[in-house]
Amino acid sequence: MRILISVAAAAGALLTAMPALAQDRPTTEEPHAGSIYVGGFLGDRFGREQTLRGATPAGLPRVIETDAKDGLTGGLVLGAVAATGDWGRARVEAEFSASRNTLKRLDLNGQQRTLLEGSRSVTTQMVNILYDTPRIAERLRFTLGAGVGHGAIDYDTRYLVAATGPEINIPTSVSGKIALQGIAGASVALGGGLELTTDVRYSRIARHQVERFNATAGTLDSVLSTRYSDVIATAGFRFFF
Question: Comparing C-alpha atoms, which of 149, 236, 137 is closest to residue 194?
Answer without folding.
Answer: 236
